[in-house]
Structure formats: structure tokens, C-alpha cells
Amino acid sequence: MSTTEEGTGERLSKTALRDFGQPIPHEERNYDQPSYRVTLLPNEAPIPVLFRHALTLIGIRHNGPGEKVAWWMTFTYKGYPCELAHQKFGLRLRIAGDLTEEQADELLTQMRKKLVSAVRTVEALLAESAGDTLNAGNVTVVNQHRQLRRAYSYFRERATNPDVVEDVSESGTSEFGTWSSFLLGKNVMALNASHDLVAAISAFLSSLEHDLVLALPFLNFDPTADDLTKIIGDRWGEKWRRVIGHSDPEAVRLRERLAEVVERWRNPYSHGGFEKGHGATVYLHTPGIGALPVGLSSIRDSPLFSFHSVSETDIEGVFALFDEIDAYLAKSVPHAMAWIDSGLDVRFDAEFRTQVADCLESEGDVEKLVEAHAYRQAMIDNMDY
After folding, report:
1. Where is the composition biased (Basic and acidic residues) (predicted)?
2. Which domain does 39 fall in, by range?
């Protein structure tokens, strides 16, 4: 235990966890006494292991895993035997002793509050070294590929096949005479398609950026040279250069075409509706002429001010490009994409990177490694230890 952890443990033992102590020896405990239990709510214990760590800092040992339980700890609270266990269906806190139900509820409530308070102290401790831990590669990144692709597929389908809108023709009379109006349904459909196209582009870029980060451990990620925090925060173009590079002419062509799509469709919306340089969204009050849009040369390319909604050709071209990019990634970084498509989370630590390298050397792909990790993850999810 580091000096910092020791200091935190001493502080907790004198504050939030001062009434928590070592467990009663097995041979001295009376197991005939009644036991009471409460399940900590997800908003109280979103990361159960932090509760375990808080108690570990004051010298209480944990046990496990076991059948349908990841870990458990026995200790005392104000002299009463207690247990905290991370089980399949929640984090359970128990207390036993010659207690009425009301007394037990009061003690369990006290413990819950004090444990939650202790976890806040633990979080502050861990935050001090979080950046160094991340950049050293000692992290697992949650694989959100499937969720992000579902959003992309949803908006792509809507942009490609917008809901049918019928023409609307209305007429009537007023004090000023007769009137009539006509709304062309296909114009409304085209406008709806343009909105969904922008959403689909944003979803695709989110998925692409996510996949490029997940691909790093399968390529040449080096925590001594790479700043993972910076890579995660970089724009999509920088991520592309880091993972795909710029030596392949096809990669350069795809990146340039994607940049054109982003500049035309996504950027005006992602910056609050303002184009680069305020073009076409800010009007100058010009004496003798009136209000003129800044950046007349870009007005035709702005989806915000185009008199004609996006055409089917535009939509097909954007999605054809995205399909090309998907195919290129599957060809250029096949092992990374195979893992990403599996839905498994991605580790960046040296042990995992070595596993990948060894598997590629012996098998030529990561199929067996995916199967092994998928089996292990299913066991963890079901707590089948």
C-alpha cells in the first residue's frame, strides 16, 4: 500500500469508517442470532469495488470470488458482525445480532451513509493518479461500437427512406377574399431526409472515432510514446492519421472525401449552426443594399440556407463513401475490427497487447483470443466462478 493510501486509510479510520472494525473470529461468533439485509441502490453504489477498496484501506480483507458472488468482506460495525457482498443481483449489506428490526434498519442506514461518504474520499484519492494510469495504458475502454452503429443505421435508414408525406391542399375564404395554399409532400420528405442525413453523419463519425481508439492496442500502441488522453481528445482527422496513417493513397483519398462531407454537412450544425468564419449565417447591414450574408461564395454549399433540400444523389454519395470507409477499415486493420465487432471491451495494458501479439503470431488472427475473452466475460457477467 502506497504512502498516500496509508494516509487515506488512517483518515478514514478516524472519520467516516471509525465505527468499522475487524471481523469477529469464526469460533467466537454466535450464528443463531437474527440477520438483516439491505441492497444498496445503483445510485448509491454505481461502482461496487470502490466500497471494497474503502474498507481495504482500513485493513479489512476481502474474499472471493465464489458462486454468484464477485467478492465479500466480513467486519464489525459498532461491535455487531456485518458483511458486504457484491452478488449477482446487487451489492448486499448485512448485519446480525440481538437486534430488533427497527434497530437493525437504523444501523444499516448509518453504514450506508458512511460507506458512501468513504467512497467519495476514495474517488478523490484515485483521481490524483487517474491521468498517469490512463496514459500508462492500464485501462479498459468500454466497447460502444454496436450502440453507436445502431444510431447510425437508424438515421441512415430514415435519410434513405423518409416517411411518406402526402401533398396538402387547402383553401377557404376570409374577410380579404378567397385564399388557397399547397404544400408539396416530397419537399417535406426531402427536408426531413436532410435532417436525418446530418444526424447519420454525426453518428458515423462518433462510431469511427470510437473504433480508431479501440484499434490502438492491436496496432503499435506504445504508452511510453503515445498520450492516450490526447488521442482520445483529438479530432477525428488526427485519430485517422494516428491509426491509418497517410502513406496509403486510398486512405488519403477517403480522408479527404470524408473531410469534405464533414465540412459541408456536419460542421455548420455542430458549431451551433454557424459555418466557419460565420459564413452564410451572419448578415451584414449594408447601406444602400440591405442585409447581406457574409461569405456569399459558400451560400450554395450550406444546407442551412439552400433553397433546394438535399438530393437523393447527395445522400447516396455520402453513404457510399461511408461504406467504402467501413470496407477499408475491415481490410487495413482486420484484427482490430474483428475484436471491435465482437462487442468485447478493449484493454490497453501490456499483458493484453502481448496476448494479441502472441495470438497473431501463432494463429494469424484473433479468433481464439476473442473466444477465450468472451467466455471469461460471460463467466464474470453471470458470476459463475
Report:
1. 8-17
2. 3-135
